[in-house]
What does this fold into?
Amino acid sequence: MTVGCTSDDGPARPISVQVSKANGPVPIQWDPCFKVNDNTVSELGFDPTTRRRETYLDREETKTGCRFTRKMDDPNSHGEVGWLVVITNTLTLEQLSFVFPNAPKVTIDGREGISIPEDGDSCGITMTGPDGTIAVRLGATPARSWDPCEQIENAARVVESTLPK
It folds into this structure.
């Protein structure tokens, strides 16, 4: 069993939900399912116990992520109102810029990135990362009281703080 640890003002504690290790044609160094701790997920308003592996299949790149959900504030409801996905990808920012040539450039705490176009209920920022790029995506369901596009830059900053410098 693999255990990740959180770091906050208190002692280190295990990540609440364990997932399988990532695998793909190119090994990765920074796996969001093991590097994004519970405190980071909670800080962004998502439930760390909903942690689950997101796998994207490709023959030439490794692209793997971790997904978290946000539940309705009503304790009697079990409805999902949004999601956070953090993805590590072996493609570089330059390669993705060719795929999305009109994507606006952004800087997240000194780290270069682009704002990747999403549909109306989700937003994403992709920035340089240890394996190539890190994507932070937020999405919302129609039954929501928050706008993912208003929160995407903050989410990217919080995730960026977990990356090696």
Observations:
- Residues 1-13 have pLDDT under 50 and may be disordered.
- The chain has one domain: 32-160.
